[in-house]
Amino acid sequence: MKPVTIGLLGLGTVGGGTVTVLQRNAGEITRRAGRDIQIRSAAARDLSKQRPFETQGIHLTQDPFEIVNDPKIDIIVELMGGLSPARALVLTALEQGKHVVTANKALIALHGNEIFAKAREKGLMVAFEAAVAGGIPIIKAIREGLAGNTVEWLAGIINGTCNFILTDMREQGRDFSEVLSEAQALGYAEADPTFDIEGIDAAHKLTILASIAFGIPLQFDKVAVEGISAITAADINYAEALGYRIKLLGIARRSARGIELRVHPTLIPERRLIANVNGVMNAVLVKGDAVGPTLYYGAGAGAEPTASSVVADIIDVVRALTSDPENRVPHLAFQAGAIADMPILPMTEIESAYYLRLSAVDQPGVLADVTRILADHHISIEAILQKEPPSGETQLPVIILTHRVIEKDMNAAIAAIGALSTIGGNITRIRVETLG
Question: What is the pLDDT at residue 333?
């Protein structure tokens, strides 16, 4: 049978890993796909660059549109990242009748609805396993393995940079800025780390996970996002003292009122498996009504871990080349006509427990004033830590752990506490999830 030909757009870290895996595992891949898979062309910015993988027999070009418009290529593998020209390239490939595999989470999160509509119009596949959590096959797990479940909620550590920083802060007792500099030196964080540390990268991934979990349109603009740059070593130590660890979580939850979509630092009980996912590793916890909680753990980035997902998608496309488009697994798990535009809850309407850290004047009655305000807003307290003030200081740190409450009530309580003359500086608020 005629080999399937692919064109690679991008020969960076993931592109190089994809070439390596396709070449090294060619025999096993053919056995699984039923046909040989050959790389016909690849686009790269620098054609003269020395690469640690074999490019002999692969046509190299600086023009990705040359590859997209090549009638002899069956599958386009987009590994460039970013939105431009990636969006135009993918839509052109689909218009040309080519299936697409991509690892581009931003592209899918922001333009996936448009891309999938074009693919359905043309009877083509768009596969995107590598767009979320690198080598963890979480898309397939939710879309296919859990297809018999109503997914109730999911929570994921889906950004390795943030997880590395928070892990190192806990293990080494260092401040955020110091650990961020090390992450940049090690290549775990970009020179401009904003997308990672402010939660935007995780929000792209959560957008995709929520869509396939709940059968809703991709809605990145409705994800509430908060990063980790305000987390201090003191917060991590206080959380430990209370039996918790701080992780940047992407959380999507279905309720009778609507869907929660949020990314933020979160206190998790240290006994939970996901609380013990450290370094640059990723993990996603999914709760189905039939199966219960399931945890998926592995490398969330890197050349070959991500290539593992890219190549698996290529194999899926090859297996389905001769199948009826109507009988393929839907892009977003649910049949296109069954996608439901459920309401997305604003953050003010979500319910969570809270960790509060505030600085109070060291005098009688201050704590009573704070607890009275919380009680007035129907917020009950689970635990309080009151530390001695540092030598020479007149304010002492007070840490409060609350039970679950609607966020708008917590916002009102924080505003009232902050207005007290005995409370100084900003009040730190971190949400708490037991994930039980």
Answer: 84
Q: What is the pLDDT of residue 53?
A: 87
Asked if 105 is an active-site residue, the reply is no
Rounded Cα gap, residues 31 and 35, in angstroms: 7
Indicate the SS3 state at residue 185: helix
| Active-site hit among 105, 140, 205, 247 | 205
Q: How many Cα atoms are found within 13 Å in the side-chain-facing hemisphere of 208?
A: 31
Task: Quote the CATH superfamily of domain 349-432.
Answer: ACT domain (3.30.70.260)
Q: Which CATH superfamily groups domain 138-299?
A: Dihydrodipicolinate Reductase; domain 2 (3.30.360.10)
Top-level class of domain 4-135+303-337: alpha beta
Residues of the chain with pLDDT under 50: none
Counting Cβ atoms within 10 Å, is residue 266 exposed (0-12), middle (13-18) or buried (19+)? buried
- The beta strands (E) that lie in 270-421 are given as 281-288, 292-299, 351-361, 381-386, 395-402, 405-406
Task: Report residue 240: phi and psi, to 5°.
Answer: -60, -40
Q: Give pLDDT, residue 388.
A: 76
